[in-house]
Write a structure and sequence with these properties.
The chain has 409 residues and is α+β, with helices and mostly antiparallel strands. 32% of the residues lie in helices and 25% in strands. The chain contains twelve helices and 21 strands. It binds flavin-adenine dinucleotide.
Length: 409
C-alpha cells in the first residue's frame, strides 16, 4: 500500500510510523525545510504532550458531540505506551505529561529517530509543498507539489491549521481540501487558545499584572462559560490560561458580530454578599485612613488604584468620606469587572484554531466519506482541545489511527 502523508507535523509523523508498522510504503511530503517545527514551541519549549485527565469535556467541536470513541481506540495510555516504545522517559506533573528531559526537542527527536528506523518504508521529502490533491476515478490520489506529482493509494492530510504559521501550518490544508472538489464542508476557522483584545483604553495602567481569579464569557448578555486561574492583564487586553480556555467561544462571538464581554471575579473565594459584608466591615475599621492605606493588603495595588479611579474615588480620599454610592461601585468591581472584547489576537499569536473540516465529512477511520482514499487528521479537523496537552493528544489519536487504517483498509 502506497501512502502519501501531507505534512510532517505531530499527526503526520505518528501516522507515518503507525502505517509503516503495518507494512505500508510511506512518503511524507513536508512543505517546510524540516519536519515537526511546531512541536519545538509547544508547552513553552517543554512539550506538554498529553494529560492524565482525558475525556470528551476536554475537547470542543462544532460538528461532533463526542470524540470519546476515538480516544477509546488510542488514548492517554496508548500515547504513553507509544512514546515508551520510542524509549522516551516522561514525567507526570499533576497529570500533565512532559518528556523527562523537559525539552520539546526530545519528542521531535524520538519521532525522527523512529522514522529513520523505518527508512526502508518511510521516505521524508522536505521543501515539498502540496498544491492540489485530486481523487482519481480508480480511487488513487494525485498530489501536485510544484512541478512534481505523486500518485498514492491513500493520502493522509496532516497539514495542521493556520495557527502559528511561522511553524509551517499556513492554512494551505484548507485549500487542499477544496482542491478535492468534493464539496466538503469546512467549519469557519478562528484563532483559539489566544489572547483577547479589549476596547477599554485604560488597560495600560494595569499592564503586566498577573492575578488569580475567575473569568466569565458573556455573549449578547448570556453567560457562555467560566474559567479560573491566573489572569494576565496586558496593555491591549487579557491573557493567561483561563482566558485561553474561553477564547475559542469569544473568537466565534467576534466573528459573528456578537457583543462579547469578559467579566472578572478577583475574589472567587467569597460570594458577593460575603465580600460586600467584609468590605463594609473593613470600611468601618479603617474609616480614618486614606484609600491608599485601605487598599493595602486587599489586591494588587495597580488594580486597586484603577478600580478607585473607575469608581470616582481618589487614593487620597479618607475612607469615611467616600460616598456610599462610589464605595459600592468600587466594591462591585472586584467581583464584576467587565471588559468589552474587540477581537482575539490573530492566527500568528494563536496556539491553535477552532473549526476545520466538519467531523461529519469523515468516517470512524478518519477517511473522507466523499473521497474514501483521503484521510484527514490533527488540527485540520473541526476538533480543538483545551490547554493541557489535549491538542497534541488529538494529533496522536487521529494520526495513529488514520495511519493504521489507511494501511489496512
Ligand atoms: C506556541 C504553541 C504552544 C503549544 N503548546 C502545546 C502543548 O503544550 N500541548 C499541546 O497539546 N498542544 C500544544 N500546541 C498545539 C499543538 O502544537 C498542535 O495542535 C499540533 O501540533 C497540531 O498537529 P498537526 O499535526 O495537526 O499540525 P502541525 O503540527 O502544525 O503540522 C502540520 C505540518 O504540515 C506542514 N504543511 C502544511 N501545509 C502543507 C502543504 N500544503 N504541503 C506540505 N506540508 C504542509 C507544515 O509545515 C507542518 O509541518 C501548541 C501550539 C503552539 C503554536
Amino acid at each position: 500500500m502506497k501512502i502519501g502523508i501531507i505534512g510532517g507535523g505531530a499527526s503526520g509523523m505518528i501516522a507515518a510510523i503507525s502505517a509503516a508498522r503495518q507494512e505500508a510504503d510511506v512518503t511524507i511530503l513536508e512543505g517546510g525545510d524540516r519536519i515537526g517545527r511546531k512541536i519545538l514551541v509547544t508547552g513553552n519549549g517543554k512539550c506538554n504532550f498529553t494529560n492524565h485527565m482525558m475525556d470528551n469535556t476536554c475537547f470542543r467541536s462544532n460538528t461532533i458531540a463526542d470524540i470519546s470513541p476515538f480516544l477509546e481506540k488510542f488514548g492517554v495510555e496508548d500515547t504513553l505506551a507509544f512514546f515508551t516504545s520510542l524509549q522516551m522517559l516522561y514525567k507526570d506533573r499533576n497529570g500533565y505529561y512532559y518528556p523527562a528531559s523537559e525539552q520539546a526537542s526530545t519528542v521531535l527527536d524520538v519521532l525522527r529517530f523512529e522514522l529513520e528506523a523505518h527508512k526502508e518504508q518511510i521516505n521524508v521529502l522536505t521543501g515539498c509543498k502540496a498544491r492540489t490533491v485530486t481523487y482519481q476515478k480508480d480511487g488513487t490520489v494525485k498530489v501536485v507539489c510544484g512541478t512534481e506529482h505523486f500518485i498514492f493509494d491513500r493520502v493522509i492530510l496532516a497539514c495542521g491549521s493556520k495557527a502559528s504559521p511561522k511553524t509551517g501550518s499556513d492554512g494551505s490544508g484548507y485549500q487542499l481540501l477544496r482542491s478535492l472538489k468534493c464539496g466538503c464542508h469546512i467549519e469557519e476557522v478562528v484563532p483559539a487558545l489566544v489572547q483577547l483584545r479589549c476596547k477599554e483604553d485604560y488597560l495600560k495602567a494595569v499592564s503586566g499584572v498577573r492575578i488569580e481569579g475567575q473569568v466569565t464569557l458573556i455573549l449578547d448578555g448570556s453567560v457562555v462559560c467560566r474559567e479560573q486561574g491566573e489572569i494576565q492583564l496586558t496593555d491591549y487586553g487579557v491573557s493567561g490560561i483561563p482566558v485561553f480556555q474561553i477564547s475559542r467561544f469569544a473568537s466565534y462571538g467576534c466573528a459573528n458580530s456578537q457583543d462579547v464581554r469578559v467579566q472578572f471575579d478577583f475574589m472567587p473565594g467569597m460570594n458577593k454578599e460575603k465580600f460586600e459584608a467584609y468590605m463594609m466591615e473593613r470600611r468601618n475599621l479603617l474609616c480614618d485612613r486614606k484609600m491608599e492605606q485601605f487598599c493595602a493588603g486587599l489586591l494588587n495595588k495597580k488594580v486597586c488604584t484603577l478600580f478607585c479611579k473607575m469608581a470616582g474615588i481618589s487614593m487620597e480620599d479618607r475612607v469615611g468620606n467616600v460616598p456610599d454610592k462610589a464605595f459600592g461601585r468600587f466594591v462591585s468591581l472586584f467581583k464584576e469587572w467587565t471588559l468589552r472584547v474587540d477581537k482575539p489576537n490573530g492566527f500568528d499569536m494563536a496556539q491553535i484554531c477552532a473549526g476545520g473540516l466538519s467531523m461529519q465529512e469523515i468516517n470512524a477511520h478518519f477517511a473522507m466519506k466523499k473521497c474514501p482514499s483521503v484521510y484527514v487528521v490533527g488540527e485540520l479537523l473541526d476538533v480543538d482541545g483545551i490547554c493541557g496537552g489535549y491538542n497534541l493528544q488529538w494529533a496522536w489519536t487521529s494520526g495513529y489511527l488514520a495511519g493504521q487504517y489507511a494501511a489496512l483498509d
